[in-house]
Design a protein that fits this description.
Layout (H helix, E strand, L loop, with lengths): L1 H14 L1 E3 L10 E4 L3 E6 L2 E10 L3 E2 L12 H10 L2 H13 L7 E2 L3 E19 L4 E8 L2 E9 L5 E7 L4 E6 H4 L12 E2 L3 E5 L5 E9 L3 E9 L2 H18 L1 H16 L3 E3 L3 H17 L26 E2 L3 H6 L1 H4 L3 H26 L9 E3 L3 E2 L4 H4 L4 H16 L2 H22 L1 E2 L5 E2 L21 H21 L5 H10 L43 H17 L8 H11 L3 H14 L28 H9 L1 H4 E2 L6 E2 L10 E8 L3 E8 L2 E9 L3 E6 L6 E4 L3 E4 L2 E6 L4 E6 L1
Antiparallel strand pairs: 1-7, 2-3, 3-4, 4-7, 5-6, 7-8, 7-11, 8-9, 9-10, 10-15, 12-13, 13-14, 14-15, 16-24, 17-18, 18-19, 20-21, 22-23, 24-25, 25-26, 26-31, 27-30, 28-31, 29-30
Helix pairs in contact: 2-3, 7-19, 10-12, 10-13, 12-13, 12-14, 13-14, 14-15, 17-18, 17-19
Length: 727
Amino acid sequence: MLEQMRAEAKRRAEAARMVMPDGERWIDGLPLGNGDIGVMLWGSRTSLKLTLDKSDLWDTRMTWPEEPDFNYATMRQCAAEGDWERFQWLFEDSVREPNPLAPTKIYFGRAEIALGDEVTRQAGELSFYRGVAELALVADGRPCRLQAFVHKQRNLLCVGIDGAEIGITVHGLAETNPVLAELDSYGPQREGQTLVQSIPDGPSCAAAWEVGPEGTLLVALETAQTPDAALQLARETLAAGAAAGWEALLVEHEAAWADYWAASGLAVPEKKAEHLWRLGQYLSACSTRQGCLPPGLQGVWQPDGGRPPWHGDYHADMNVQESFWPVYANNHPELGRCLMEFLSGCLPAAKHFCKRFFGWEGAFFPTAFVPGMVFVPGWSTAQFWMGVPGWLAHHMWLQWQYERDELALADHIVPFLREVFKFYEGLLEEGEDGRLHVPLSTSPEMHDNRPEAWHRDTTCDLAIIRNLCGWLIETEAATGEPVLTTRAEAVRGKLAEYPLNSSGGLQLWPGQDYFESHRHPSHLMSIHPFDDLNLDSEASRAIVQRSMWEFVERGMGRWAGHTFPQSLALAARAGWGEMAREQIRLFHDHFLAANGLHLNGDWRRAGISILGSNVFCMEANCGIAGTIPEMLLQSWGGRLRLFPAVPEDWSDAGFHSLRAEGGWLVSAVRRQGRVAAVSIRATVAGQCRLRNPFEGTYRWCGGPVQEDGEDLLVELAAGETTLLTAE
């Protein structure tokens, strides 16, 4: 039964496609990538365009204001005195004015393939499973077929065209982007079929290309610390690819993608859910790779010809988080290591900023930053949301929970959690009630960038700090080195309680109900992505249900596209399967471009939201792929729950090798509304607790199973599997 489901999931994955719409815009293109380099394939008419990007192309130049009062003490003073003009100047304008463009993500440039005087596109599609784009074209009256892919394991763009001659021109960034050209020309150097550009105070990037036999084209893209080194790397990559040959490169590439998709699968009745799940995972793999820089707002696809929205930076009040949600449950912890190692590398700079700005030990991250933890100018209410370090720490916790790698725990995870805890320990102040309070913070983007955004004891901050203490306590116990455990227990024990309204629902901060529809439901973080408010206890269940009803009551009028992955997950945690499914449909129908890429608002003006942005950001594509599994499998609180939030008409559904907290790989099949079979495989030794999914008797093989109230306990060694089936 499970093997049949696995085969069906593979069949559906092989058929998954992105269709290229008619149009000549960059946003109408097909995204290709391997986690380090990205290419957007677009255009036709006179030439096909391929916008070239790379994960480490960032202009990180930053001019700091010479303001001695740029510190937390002055921030507190301005807020207390209501001196918002000085507040705005010190913590926003003084940073923004000397840095109007940089720091920013940049791309390399654009390759253009000329196929004739007039080219029309008859069809175009991208196979998620193969990672290959295919176009049917007519060039000067001659039909031709194009295949293009970015090699999964080599930094090579590979293009093959049957029926037409290939002519290629490569343009540098300044030639294709007049806005970013104002930063610097990046010193383009051309020599034959190569182009090198250098970022001031940054790396050099080189492209080398070759038109091969039978209508093939290879383009290598590499970076290094010097122009000569980058060019040498690009030439070596190109030569190795040419020696392998087109057919061998395609076989290698398709095999690597097949391995990626074999890691997990699902089959559910809702086609839109499956499409979004595969699309988000495809974009995640295209833009994320261990050892490379993690994707910013647009991944490895910066918009051709203009300034990247919001500098293309790391926005850590939701965007970074959603971009990495799919890697855990979908069984790709290797991709999560990309973010883990990056954040660990930023820790020295975050510690320095904390000491400089706040005056105590610990690590602080602003909402918007670029590699090196370089500050990006923006709203002060966003940049200094005190919850950012803790929400980034959540990914450290998730990496441990899902992968259970003890070396990563000791080298990266625990050191990060400790420094973030120290920041909050210094931030909190004891009140007359004997409780610890957050003296000044915001609830992300609530009241936008106005003075009334600043408040005490925002609910999201209390949730972050409370859960951070628990993560630190548990991970230190796993290392056997409880350095800060006693202090974390003390903070958690004295932390202010969540503010509740008279109906028992969560407030934004004490005395303030969730008063309007908003794109960031951050006051509900204790429900998701955390789980200290859940359905397991009667008191907690009442808060969850009431808070969700108030969330629904305010409506979607001010939601952005990225709100839907969060609302889906919240609905799933509340057990509202119908609402979860409706979030999938609304997101799919109203917040995607014609090719499926997420646009940040209700851009068709369908009346879903007043936000009409048509700006591409990849986080919601990824986030929805990370939250759909919440409908099928939840593992918070040390317990597995099967199909906890499926709609009534999903009577037949299944999944294989979804990864659960604790490192369990879980597969399950539901038939006629009942769980028919479940398989649990241990990646590390331990005891698995499963909420009994069977309505009657069951049988098992492969490991001892014990009953404990409503739960089944399974003890497994690493690599062992237990199969349970309904009788």
